[in-house]
Amino acid sequence: MSNERTNIASSRHSKNTHKNRRKNNTFVPSIKTIEKHVYSYIFGQDEPVKQIITSIYRGIVFKSLNSNILIIGGSGTGKTETIKQILNVLNLPYTIEDATKYTMEGYQGKSVSGMIKNLYKNAGKDIEKAQSGVVIIDEIDKKSSKTVSNRRDISGVEVLNSLLKIIEGDKVEVDMDVFLDTSNLIIIFLGAFSGIDKIREKRLNLNQVGFLSDKTTASSILDDRILKQDLVNYGLPEEFIGRIGTIIEMNKLTVDDLALILKKSKLSIFRQYQKELKKMGVVLSFNGELFYQIAQKSLLLDTGARELTNTVNYVFDKIIYEVLSNPSKYRRNSSKEPYTVCYMDLDIVEDNTRYRMSK
Ligand SMILES: Nc1ncnc2c1ncn2[C@@H]1O[C@H](COP(=O)(O)OP(=O)(O)O)[C@@H](O)[C@H]1O
Ligand SMILES: [Mg+2]
To answer: Which of 71, 83, 201, 298 has a CA between 20 and 30 Å from the CA of residue 322?
Structure first.
């Protein structure tokens, strides 16, 4: 009984919030502002970034139904970072959940409410704020009927179907007598979907060979984006796919992209080393080609921008040790004192002793 009253009260409350939100639309930063912010962190993803911002924007400004988003992209292409940056500017609470951690048993038990509870916590236990928040569910591709390998997790697809409940709008108790209405949440699914290229290619090739099955429409067969029918073929249930409003595909990062990330991103680990060394009295001197050398080496592994960290750590390992173990040698005692110059050879990517200090 008391639960029911709370439900009614909270749903009336959330209606008021929508009105406020519409009135307060001016407080939502403009798309251009968000774009500019994200582009100082994320490189090589201009088009996907625009699409992601637009989809989230529609979700919050117009409360669009079906504002759920699926982002497909390999490891280290910037899926998670892009969303984090967008949500930071929008000041929206979010939680990032790993789909593989949800088994059917767990799901039926505490886990699903766990997801929503995490969002509530991240919103500072502000129920209104939380109800306009974002749930990010990573590794969703691992729940396809074709990739589920774990015996305990044969219910992968059932988990997806259970997620439909949140998507369609549920009331989840997040605190004593506090219910979170999930109907206005934006749900973002992330996944690498390795192998989906082959499925898409197969569809496109059907066209060339001239086999048009009754089911395949002429327009879909020409479309080189990933389509819902490709996701069905990948093993995701149709009911689930039907609930996804927008499918966005990240680009594969090229050598040029990786070099640009090192050179320009606010998250660049190279720039971080550069700053730290300067604080210790050392400035770097190197040929700009070094960024390409590091990028090239990192690209050998198929983990996008992730491998940059390892390569850059290797490159600076000996330099940092040298400076940290002789602090007084390099420290400037006044701002008039010159910096020590560290000349980095291009070969430093292969042999991290290939540098020379000016003193
Ligand atoms: N396109 C990109 N531009 C700049 N940095 C990137 C890009 N993609 C990934 N990174 C960096 O690599 C790391 C991993 O990125 P993440 O967004 O977590 O990748 P994933 O696509 O696997 O979610 C982040 O710290 C981020 O700084
Ligand atoms: Mg990620």
So the answer is: 298
Nearest atom, ligand 1, residue 190 CA: 23
pLDDT in tens, 264-274: 999 999 999 99
Q: What is the pLDDT of residues 248-266, one digit of tens each?
A: 999 999 999 999 999 999 9
- What is the DSSP code (8-state) at residue 47? H
Task: For residue 234, count CB atoms less than 10 angstroms from its CB and return exposed for 0-12, middle for 13-18, buried for 19 or more.
Answer: buried
Token duo for residue 26: 């001016």
**What confidence tier does 113 reach under pLDDT thresholds 50, 70, 90?**
confident
What is the whole-number distance in angstroms between the Cα of residue 136 and the centre of ligand 2?
10
**Which domains can be identified in the chain, with CATH numbers?**
2-249 (3.40.50.300), 255-357 (1.10.8.60)
- Environment class of residue 259 by beta-carbon count within 10 Å: exposed (0-12), middle (13-18) or buried (19+)? buried
Which residue has the CA at smallest separation from atom 8 of ligand 1? Answer: 78
CB under 5 Å of ion ligand 2: residues: 80
Q: How far is CA 190 from CA 44, 279, 358, in A?
A: 18, 39, 48
